[in-house]
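Bumping with the actual sequence this time:
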Amino acid sequence: MYLGALELDILLGDVHSLKEKRSVVKPVIAALARFGVSVAETGEHDRYRRSLLGVAVASADIGHLTEVLDTCERHVAGRPELQLLAVRRRIFGPED
């Protein structure tokens, strides 16, 4: 079994309140969940123009795991209303 995780550091566009932040981040989280991953906002809760999203997935095949993480990263990077500042990726395998 392999476990993969992404930490996505995001800068939000024209957002001026935490309420507006929620209206941008919530659809991103919902879209990522459709890829069969667990996703949550894991940081930057008090800053309205920043968000830190955590994505996790488990798979029996490392190729599938990598493909799912790549798809999630591309999806977030392709959204025009936000800017992906940094991505941290970790993969744990049977040896870990």
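The tokens above came from a reply further down the thread. The radius of gyration is 14 Å.
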